[in-house]
Write a structure and sequence with these properties.
The protein is α+β, with helices and mostly antiparallel strands. It is built from four helices and ten strands. Strand 9 and strand 10 form a beta hairpin.
């Protein structure tokens, strides 16, 4: 499961597919987006998460179906699965928060006449923001963060036979505060092994590469 924070999953999947040129026949996209995954985020905080979304699909007209029925079936099936999983793995993300220190003045929306997501006179979502010293913190906005599978794929079958039509979405994410490369201690391991070639080293030109996907804990 990949922590993708509060990125707009619908925009990064369903809408990307239908906005892609040539989606009547296939789609191939690679896009990046930024977001938050922490419960409480100060007004001064920038995004802490970079998310990569790769979509790869191809389809045609299946005998007995409409010209775009195979695409619609794949997209709708995959989105239904993705939404069900992400809805089961979600949490509130509060942002534009004030009041972490006594020096911070609170904006009008946090006062006796305004309203915000939490910690305000009028709480739209809940009373407690879940922040450090939360009794003093007010947050204006609430979004929802999710965890999703690193890979999800839909295939099309007809009468039990596997057709070439398919749609696959891959997610990866990196904490922007992580060490360069997102590998942390794995980076030094990869560097040490990069020139190590077992057996006939003169024949092979590549060693070992470590891909660091997701967020390190």
């Amino acid at each position: 499961m990949i922590d993708v924070g509060n990125i707009d999953l619908f925009a990064q999947t369903w809408q990307k597919i239908y906005a892609s040129s040539g989606n009547q026949y296939s789609v191939l996209t690679d896009s990046a987006s930024s977001g938050y995954n922490g419960v409480c985020n100060s007004w001064a905080d920038g995004f802490n998460l970079n998310v990569q979304t790769n979509i790869n699909g191809q389809w045609g007209q299946v005998k007995g179906l409409g010209p775009h029925d195979s695409r619609e079936g794949l997209v709708q099936a995959l989105w239904a699965a993705l939404k069900d999983i992400s809805d089961r793995n979600q949490w509130n993300v509060f942002s534009d928060c004030y009041g972490f220190t006594w020096q911070e003045g609170k904006p009008d929306w946090a006062g006796s006449t305004g309203s915000g997501a939490c910690g305000c006179y009028n709480n739209v979502v809940q009373t407690d923001c879940g922040c450090p010293d939360s009794e003093n913190v007010s947050c204006k906005d609430r979004t929802v963060a999710h965890k999703v599978p690193s890979k999800i794929k839909a295939n099309l079958y007809q009468d039990g036979a596997l057709l070439p039509d398919s749609l696959e979405i891959d997610f990866s994410a990196q904490d922007v505060t992580a060490e360069a490369g997102g590998c942390g201690s794995l980076g030094s391991v990869a560097a040490a092994l990069a020139s190590f070639i077992p057996g006939s080293g003169a024949i092979f030109s590549a060693g070992i590469k470590i891909a660091c996907l997701g967020l390190e804990q």
